Fold:
Amino acid sequence: MRTQNTERSGSNFISMKEGIDHFENLLTEDREEFMSSNERKQEDTNRHMILVEQPEILTEDVRVALSNMKNGKAPVLGNILIELLKAAPNGMLDVLAQLFNECLRGSKPPADLKR
Structure:
């Protein structure tokens, strides 16, 4: 017998969100009840680590990536064809490597890269 939306045959029901939240919390392996004191200390330390060292993209990395791209595809950065980038001098590839590294460090990428 249903007396309200939340009751049925004397049982109380919870919302779907409450159920999901409950089981997500319940099924988390790193709950405090299961962690040793060393694991708690390590987790506290990890929460305060923000910076992760990112390997730098080298000019050679850009050259290899370009060589793996197919010719005859739609233009990329600023409507430049892949074939032109593949034939670009080292100075241009250096600039691209610097651009990619700046993006990895958190700089805002140029609008053409976002497409």
